[in-house]
Amino acid sequence: MTGVVSGYREGVSRAGNPYTTFRLAEGGSGVAVFAGGHRGLRDDIRVRVSGVFQKVRRVARYTFYNEIEAERWSRCGKELAGSGPRHEGQGPKRSRGQHRPG
Q1: pTM over 0.85
Q2: Do the Cβ atoms of 66 and 31 come closer than 8 Å?
């Protein structure tokens, strides 16, 4: 999915694992995005994200709705605010159902 980043946040879980969350929207519809690690993005840039979409995802005592767990991402050439270097990345290599250590 390609869209504009909003609500960009980097955090660290209680187990010490860095993560990134943001909303990706295009044309009035959007989806939440979760990615392991810190991505160094910011609000108001266009990115393309691919990964596993889950309507409902439960992690420990938390429930997440309509979320993509990003496996690959790249910045698109046209940005809404400012400009910066193009970054591309790939999420952690793990198969579905594999427990994240920590």
Answers
A1: no
A2: yes
CB 71 within 8 A of CB 50: yes
Sign of torsion, CA 71 76 79 85? positive
Distance CA(14)–CA(29), nearest Å, equals 31
Of 1, 6, 17, 26, the closest CA to residue 99 belongs to: 17
| DSSP category for residue 100 | P
Q: For residue 53, with 0-12 CB atoms within 10 Å meaning exposed, 13-18 middle and 19 or more buried, which class applies?
A: middle
Domain 2-90 grouped into CATH 2.40.50? yes
What is the Cα gyration radius of the chain? Answer: 14
| Domain residue limits, the chain | 2-90
Tens of pLDDT, residues 29-83: 899 999 999 988 999 999 999 999 999 989 888 898 899 999 988 888 654 443 3
